[in-house]
Design goal:
The chain has 7 helices and 2 strands, in the order H-H-H-E-E-H-H-H-H. It is mostly helical. The protein folds into 2 domains: 47 residues; 92 residues, no CATH class. The protein has a two-stranded antiparallel ribbon. The chain starts with a helix and ends with a helix.
């Protein structure tokens, strides 16, 4: 295998013209390179003095509220049937803003909500004295109709089960 020194000699790296180029760069290249870099840095410093970037921007600000308005997005799409608020009106959590076009009657939905509020005590205790069986079968609730009818049926079945006292009668046999 050839030695590294032999390869260098074969390539001609030790020749006088190559050593003259690679050995020491000419002084005029070094001086002119340093001068060019100095001039560029000097121009950047002088330019930074004349072209200032402002750190403080002065302007007028009007603060209208401590809580800024927020966007409200509907969970479904459709045309607005009713709009219950006006522009720049203050609203609170739980307020109804609008009604999207649907087959439900708004008054019937409120009636269903009132009836369900009456059932909250029953759902916590499951005590028969708190049970209020829903009687409004003629409500027009749109998509909520199936769930409401199913709840009414389940509550009537539960009331019937408790009134017949079927479980204790079968246990006593």
């Amino acid at each position: 295998m050839p030695d590294l020194e032999d390869i260098r000699n074969d390539v001609g790296l030790r020749s006088e013209p190559i050593q003259e180029i690679l050995g020491r760069p000419p002084r005029w290249i070094i001086r002119s390179g340093i001068t060019v870099i100095f001039i560029v840095v000097l121009l950047l410093l002088i330019g930074s003095y004349f072209f200032k970037y402002p750190d403080i921007i002065s302007s007028e600000v009007i603060i209208t509220a401590s809580n800024p308005p927020s966007w409200v997005l509907a969970r479904s799409t459709g045309k607005l049937q009713n709009l219950f608020v006006e522009d720049k009106q203050v609203i609170h959590k739980g307020d109804i803003l609008a009604m999207i076009d649907n087959p439900a009657v708004l008054e019937d939905v409120f009636t269903m909500k009132e009836e369900l509020d009456l059932l909250t005590d029953f759902f916590y205790t499951l005590d028969i004295k708190d049970l209020v069986v829903l009687q409004n079968e003629r409500l027009s609730l749109g998509e909520l109709q199936d769930g409401y009818v199913s709840l009414m049926k389940q509550l009537k079945d539960y009331e019937r089960f408790l009134s017949l006292d079927y479980y204790t009668k079968n246990v006593g046999r």
